[in-house]
Amino acid sequence: MRLDGKRILVTGTGSGFGAAMARRFCAEGARVAALDVDMDANDTVVADINTTHGGSQADGYQCDVADPVQVAATVAACIDAMSGLDVVVNNAGWSHRNQPLLDVTAEEFRKVYEVNVFSIHHMVRAILPHWRRSGSGVMINITSTAGIRPRPGLTWYNSTKGAVNTLTKSLAAELASDNIRVCGIAPVMGTTGLLETFMGGPETPERRAQFLATIPLGRFSHPDDIASAAVFLASDEARMITGAILEVDGGRCI
């Protein structure tokens, strides 16, 4: 198995990309710490994983990634429970609705930065001392094609993902001497709970066709697409890859 013995923390595991990654990591032999602010959804995912694999391969933790105190405490608890952490996936994200930029409130602007950008700052501060002591680590940031090829209606969200892309590359450059790899995955719009938020309204055939026309492969990303990319980047197969933003986008950014 490609991740046998790896200890992996994933944020935002209650649904979508995070749930798919947690499931695939465990299927590949990893032990997973599954973090989400919604414990009802998270408990369902964790229970399903453990039932599928006949053991306790996943442990659920409630954590608001925008709260530095909660992040520090949860990371410490995960390190203690698993005797270390090898990989961290910053997946939890949020977006304001697709709408004219002046219609986004100051509170929404603040929240999108707290969840999408500040959370990575909190996670780095929490995990870096441990990785420097252990001599290695891997961080994977789930970003978006919105930070590479931004589109109208999501300006403030787009800017957070542009920040994550630059942050990912800068972290990779600064932490390489510590044998710490940092990479990103940039999905195109996916079949997750945020789909209608990104579209700005109900998923009508017209809206779907309009967006699909911009993706050369002609479909949205699926959580399993992101999970496959994450398995590779978390594995030793990617040991020479750092600072890369892997576009899982069906050609959207061409």
Helices, strands, pairings?
Elements: E1 7-11, H1 16-27, E2 31-36, H2 39-53, E3 58-62, H3 68-82, E4 87-90, H4 106-134, E5 137-142, H5 155-175, E6 180-187, H6 195-199, H7 205-212, H8 223-234, E7 245-248
Parallel strand pairs: 1-2, 1-4, 2-3, 4-5, 5-6, 6-7
Helix pairs in contact: 1-2, 1-8, 3-4, 4-5
Written account of the structure:
With 254 residues, the chain is α/β, with parallel strands linked by helices. 46% of the residues lie in helices and 15% in strands. It contains 8 helices and 7 strands. The chain has helices at residues 16-27, 39-53, 68-82, 106-134, 155-175, 195-199, 205-212, 223-234; strands at 7-11, 31-36, 58-62, 87-90, 137-142, 180-187, 245-248. The chain has a 7-stranded parallel β-sheet with strand order 3-2-1-4-5-6-7, with helices on both faces. Helix 3 runs parallel beside helix 4. The protein is globular, with a radius of gyration of 17 Å. The two termini are 33 Å apart. The model has no long low-confidence stretch (mean pLDDT 95).
